[in-house]
Amino acid sequence: MARIISLNSKGSLRGELTVGGAIPRTITYESHLEKKVLVCLLARPDVEEVYEQPRPTVIYRDRDNTMREHTFDFLAVRRSGVRTAISVKPAGKAERHDLAGTLKLVAAYTPPMFATSIVLMTERDVPRDAYHNACLILAMRDEVDEESDRTVAALVGSLNGTTSVGSLVDASGCHADGFAAVVRLIGNGRLRTVGRSRIDYATTVALAGVHGREAS
């Protein structure tokens, strides 16, 4: 479970997320954009851990042959073992300062034990609906209802093609708890949404990795 906490006064952009697990911990962010990126990363089923301001900093040589330091905003560790170092910047600022070009220089000096890939993320990578869905997934993740989860999982096990969230909820007879169970299945990667709209009762879903026609 991730819980958002404001650290500073009204209008401040700094805050933290409390992340549940075997050992709960907090992850800080420095801007609203960083918060959106962090929430979207934490909601991904393939991401096992996210670290903020990961160390060590990377020492690299810039275009003027000057040695500089670069600190990434996040390091996302996937269940596959892939380690992705992430820099977060507003698109306009990133373009003005050619951050993509800088990251290419940084990549040449990044130890593979630290990160196996480097990514620049802007507001374009975390659209409003994606952030809304990520918040929903995190909110539902630890709200476990075993009966509803079993019932909906059994329905999904026989799913052929696509269906709607509402159809699964109706078939389960679990009402709001059924909706939450469907969201958890999306969050853990068993179901995928079809399209990029906000998750609601009208959202079309399918088994992850399966493409097919509307289920009857």
Provide a concise account of the structure shown.
With about 220 residues, this protein is α+β, with helices and mostly antiparallel strands.
Explain how this protein is built.
- This protein has helices at 32-43, 91-96, 99-107, 128-141, 146-157, 165-172, 175-187, and strands at residues 2-6, 15-19, 25-29, 47-52, 58-61, 67-70, 74-78, 83-88, 117-121, 162-164, 191-193, 204-207.
- The chain has 216 residues and is an alpha+beta fold.
- The protein has 2 domains: 12-121, Trna Endonuclease, Chain: A, domain 1 (3-Layer(aba) Sandwich), CATH 3.40.1350.10; 128-207, Arc Repressor Mutant, subunit A (Orthogonal Bundle).
- A 4-stranded mixed β-sheet has the order 4-7-8-9, sandwiched between helices. A 3-stranded antiparallel β-sheet has the order 1-2-3, covered by helices on one side.
- α5 (146-157) packs across α6 (165-172) and α5 packs across α7 (175-187).
- The longest helix has 14 residues, at 128-141.
